[in-house]
Amino acid sequence: xxxxxxxxxxxxxxxxSKAQNTYYPQAFFDKKLAQQxxxxxxxxxxxxxxxxxxxxxxxxxxxGEKHYAxxxxxxxxxxxxxxxxxxYDMRRKYENKKTTVYMSEEAFKYRIEALTDDHGRFKFEKxxxxxxxxxxxxxxxxxxxxxxxxxxxxxxxxxxxxxxSTPIYQTFFYGYSSGNRESKFVxxxxxxxxxxxxx
Length: 199
Hints:
Keywords: Signal. This is Carboxypeptidase regulatory-like domain-containing protein. Residues 1-19 form the signal peptide. By secondary structure, the protein is an alpha+beta fold. The chain has a single domain, classed as Immunoglobulin-like (Sandwich), CATH 2.60.40. Helices cover 21% and strands 49% of the residues. It is built from 4 helices and 11 strands. The protein has a 4-stranded antiparallel beta sheet with strand order 7-5-9-10, with no helix packed on it. Strands 8-2-11 form a 3-stranded mixed beta sheet, with no helix packed on it.
C-alpha cells in the first residue's frame, strides 16, 4: 500500500510539473476607453507581415530567409490601454513553455482585424490618433538538415597494419512547418497620418 501511494505521488508530481499555468492581468479594463480609442478617424496603418526561421538558439538570423505571411493570415490591432500595457508586461516577463498570459474575453473583443494578401500585405484604415499594438502569427514551411554517419574510411600502413578510421557523414534535408509571433507598437500622432510598417 505504501508503494502504491509513493507511485501515485510521483505520477501527480509529474503531471503537476507538466501543467500549464495561466495568468490574467489584474488591472481594471475600461471598455469605454478602449471603444473610444478604436473609434473612427482618418489615419491608416499598412505594412507587410513576415518572419524568419529561428536557428538552434531560438534567434532569427539577420540574413536568414524571409517568409511572408500566407494569404488570409489574421493581423490583430489592439488599442494600448492601461489594461493592455499590464497584459503585455506580464507576457514579456512570465510567458514561457509552461506559462501563458491571456487578456480577458471582454478586453479581447476590443480589437480590429485585417487579412493579408498574396504578398503578406495588410491595411487598417479609419483609425484615430493614438498608440496601437499589432500582432500576428506567421506560419511557414522551412527546410532543416542533419548529419548522420553512413560509413567509415580505414587507413593502413605500408605493411597492411591498421592505423585509424575516419567517419563518413552524409547530410540529410527535411521540411517542417512552424509559426512565429510577430508584433509591433505603432503610434499615430496626427489625424490623417499614414504609417508604413513591417511586422
